[in-house]
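tmp note - Glycerol uptake facilitator protein
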Amino acid sequence: MDSVVTTKFIGELLGSFSLIALGCGISMNLTLDKSYGEGNKATLSGPLGWGFAVAMSVIISSPFDTGGHFNPAVTLAQWAAGVFDSQLVLPYIAAQFIGCFLGALVVSFVYGGHLSATSADSGKILGVFATNASIRKNNSVQNFSAEVIGTFFLVFIGLSMGANHGGVIIENTTGIPQFTHSMVGFGSLGALPAGFMIFAIGMAYGGVTGWSLNPARDLMPRLVHQILPLKGKGDSDWGYGIVYASLAPIVGGMLAAGLYLLVKEYFLK
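out:
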């Protein structure tokens, strides 16, 4: 990889790492037995915490000018919409999966004692790593649709924000077309819209599936759940993770990219 791609790879990896280290840490704090946060799982806590986790991850990755994807569904959708260069797709997705895996390893180490104390409840254990539908029986279409719609909003809003801020496509010194990105710091509100999106989508659709929206966010913590030597942890439920938590977000992202191209072609000339 050349220096530009390497820099963006590192930034995307760090952002994805922090997303899971913070996000799954919030879930574990609110859920696991003997945690100080156990029993304080108010309706807003999960969506608000994950929203801030996303915002902090955007800040962490901003010096690397990655655009803060942290999500293969976002990367693929931006590529399909013509605002992301094909040579960055695989490095970004690789960084996202590696970062999410490492983040899940770190947070499971920190909460290792609490995971062991909760190991008799397999549903609770899997739930702090990966997503699951609140109703499985006779609700498959609704569960799939919740992930498609949630990711559609996430991606379409992101694409619209880029277009509205002069970020449709630029050619930088590397010749790589991409959205324009600005540095994000604690004195800037630039990271907050991403957090607000996650919060709103979580409040709207989190009750159905736990709102994955992101194959890397679900599959890599699910893999860590698979390899953890915890008694009574139960099955890792890969069928759900692949279809509902991974395929559905990709479908939602591609639908958003298609609508963005349609709007751009016929209404934004």
